[in-house]
Amino acid sequence: MNSKFTKIIRFVLGLILIVFGANKLLMIFNETGFLPALKMTTFTESFENIGYILPVVGALEVYIGILLIMKKWVPFALTLLAPISANILLFHFFLDPSSAIIGALLVALLNGILIYKHWSQFKPLFY
């Protein structure tokens, strides 16, 4: 669990989450100006109009990223990240397959690798 490979994956995933989570909180890169698909625009605008969903998800992503980088409660962070990474992947698969599907696959893959590396801590959940 403490190999260099695992540390690199943990750090990269944590950094990705902090950057994109902070973007949701601070709206540094407002992507609504160049969204190509009508479905994606409607979906994203509905979340923006509700008002609390993007900041909550952004705060969770930043929190999870900090936990991963600091190596605190990693299995807990990975458990929180699993539904978020699944939704990121499904969002880009169904609504925007051309632009950021690689990034979504990367987040899901890194999360899956870390879950696999920490599987001994997840085993009690399934027995």
What does this structure look like?
- This is DoxX protein.
- With 127 residues, this protein is mainly alpha-helical.
- It has one domain (4-126).
- Helices cover 76% and strands 0% of the residues.
- It is built from six helices and no strands.
- The chain has helices at 4-26, 38-50, 53-70, 74-94, 101-117, 119-122.
- Helix 4 packs antiparallel against helix 5 (101-117).
- It is globular.
- The chain starts with a helix and ends in a 5-residue tail after the last helix.
- The model has no long low-confidence stretch (mean pLDDT 84).
Low-pLDDT runs of 5+ residues are none
What pattern of helices and strands is seen along the backbone? HHHHHH
| CA(first)-CA(last) distance | 22 Å
Structural class: mainly alpha
Number of strands: 0
* Percent in strands: under 5%
- Anisotropy-based shape: globular
| Helix count from the secondary structure assignment | 6
Instruction: Report the sheet with the most strands, covering strand number, pairing sense and barrel closure.
Output: none
What is the rounded Rg?
A: 15 Å
Question: Helical residue percent?
Answer: over 70%
| Domains, number | 1
Mean pLDDT: 84
